[in-house]
Structure formats: structure tokens, C-alpha cells
């Protein structure tokens, strides 16, 4: 059976860009998928999926192909460039993944996690961040919040830095409502807190989340100023799994975290 090859759009994503160049280079050389298999030591069926844009090319394999075909590092450079390029397309993709994800693992350093925010908190955070289209961003966030009410709902594990919880966002009423929402959600979701006394740790590098779909695929997404970055390279995906586990190791348990949430909430009323 022939493998269906969808049209590639190099402007759409790094995966398509690499797939386009890989296919172009291979056809230019008159090479076969078998030759790619021999260069990398991977099964040739993998490269059929890579050239269709279905599976991303790993950086290590790109470097092997670049060396064998003397491309002056073209494929590897594209992958490394893609890691530093923030695309609004990724934001669309991660929203689509969120709508069907079976699990969400979240580490939040600076804000209450987007998935757990109230619309009012979200609006205040967008205003504070100088977002150019606040209402459009709020509408997008509200659609994301619907993820928690769909059936079946995703399994959510959120770890939040205490400083993010203690940061008053919006009016006092909006801030209190956000804390109340977290306290209410804590009965059904895993919400854990990392205290300041935990000291330096891998999570200080920045916030990220990992969506897992029903087929077991993980999709990490990093938060930054502007659109975030969707991680596709399998080796890089693995580092986010490890990072989340390491942060989990130093977080308070659910019961102690709920106590912290209630203490912070009480302080707002003082």
C-alpha cells in the first residue's frame, strides 16, 4: 500500500520545512528512503512519515544526513532555528490539541495556569502584559477553559509556584474569585504548590505544560512573551517529561497545597 503524502507547507511549521528540504535533497540526489535508513540506522518507514510531515526529524538524524550528503548543516540548522522561532500557528495547534487531550501536566511559574484561570483574571493578566488584542485573547482563553467541562474531561496535574498565587492580579474581588476557583477545583484536580523554601530548581527556567493525547503522544508547550513554542523533537519532548517529574518531587502534596491556597485566600481578606 502506498503511503499518502500530504502537501507540505514550509511556512506552516518547522516539521514541514525540514520534510520539504529532506525530500528535495533526496530527490535531487536520486537517493531512496533506504539510503536514509542506512545513514541513520533507522527503519525506512520512519522517513516516509517524516517526508509526509507526520513525524518530525530528530536533530541527531538530521546531523547524520547533513554530514553524509555534505549539506553544510542545512537540516540540523533548520531544526535549531525552529526552536527559537515563536509562531502564532503553534498557539492554534496547541489549542486544538488541548481540545482533545486526555491529560494535562502544568508547571506555572509566574501566573495561575491558563487552564485554571477565571475570565476576569485572564483579562487582567493580558492587560498587564500589554497584549494588543485583549478581548480577542480573553475569548480564546474562555474557549480553552471549556476543556475542563467537556466529556470526558482531561486528567489535570497542575504545579504552581507560590509567588504566582500570591501575586494580586486584577481588582481585589477578581483576585479573590481566582483563589476561590482554585480552591474549588482542588477537590477534583491535582493542584500542588512549590514553596519558596524549595530553593533553585529546574522549573525556574520558565513555565510549560505537557498535553498528552489518547494515543499516548506528549506535546510540551512553553510559555513566553507572545506566542509560546510547541515542542516536537522527540528528544526534547523527553526533557520536559523529566523536568515535570523533578518539579513534582519538590512540590507539596495535594492536602498541604490546599492548606496553602486557603491561607493565601485568608490573607487577602485581612
TrEMBL record:
Pfam families: DUF5753 (PF19054), HTH_31 (PF13560). This is HTH cro/C1-type domain-containing protein. InterPro entries: Cro/C1-type_HTH, DUF5753, Lambda_DNA-bd_dom_sf. It comes from Actinomadura meridiana. It comes from the Bacteria. Residues 22-55 form the HTH cro/C1-type domain.
Amino acid at each position: 500500500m502506498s503511503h499518502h503524502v500530504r502537501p507540505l507547507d514550509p511556512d506552516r511549521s518547522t516539521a514541514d520545512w525540514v520534510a520539504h528540504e529532506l525530500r528535495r535533497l533526496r530527490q535531487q540526489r536520486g537517493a531512496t528512503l533506504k539510503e536514509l535508513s542506512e545513514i541513520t540506522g533507522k527503519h525506512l518507514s520512519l522517513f516516509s512519515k517524516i517526508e509526509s510531515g507526520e513525524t518530525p526529524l530528530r536533530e541527531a538524524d538530521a546531523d547524520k544526513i547533513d554530514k553524509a550528503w555534505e549539506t553544510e548543516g542545512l537540516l540540523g540548522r533548520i531544526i535549531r532555528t525552529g526552536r527559537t522561532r515563536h509562531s502564532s500557528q503553534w498557539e492554534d495547534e496547541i489549542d486544538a490539541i488541548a481540545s482533545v487531550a486526555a491529560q494535562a501536566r502544568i508547571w506555572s511559574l509566574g501566573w495561575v495556569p491558563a487552564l485554571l484561570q477565571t475570565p476576569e483574571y485572564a483579562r487582567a493578566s493580558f492587560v498587564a502584559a500589554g497584549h494588543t488584542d485583549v478581548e480577542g485573547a480573553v475569548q480564546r482563553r474562555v474557549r480553552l477553559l471549556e476543556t475542563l467541562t467537556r466529556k470526558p474531561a482531561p486528567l489535570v496535574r497542575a504545579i504552581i509556584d507560590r509567588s504566582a498565587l500570591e501575586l494580586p492580579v486584577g481588582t481585589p474581588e477578581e483576585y479573590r474569585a481566582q483563589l476561590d476557583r482554585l480552591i474549588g477545583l482542588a477537590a477534583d484536580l491535582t493542584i500542588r504548590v512549590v514553596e519558596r523554601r524549595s530553593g533553585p530548581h529546574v522549573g525556574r527556567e520558565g513555565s510549560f505544560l505537557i498535553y498528552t493525547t489518547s494515543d499516548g503522544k506528549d506535546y510540551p508547550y512553553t510559555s513566553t512573551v507572545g506566542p509560546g513554542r510547541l515542542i516536537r523533537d522527540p528528544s526534547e519532548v523527553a526533557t520536559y517529561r523529566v523536568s515535570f517529574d523533578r518539579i513534582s518531587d519538590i512540590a507539596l502534596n495535594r492536602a498541604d497545597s490546599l492548606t496553602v491556597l486557603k491561607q493565601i485566600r485568608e490573607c487577602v481578606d485581612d
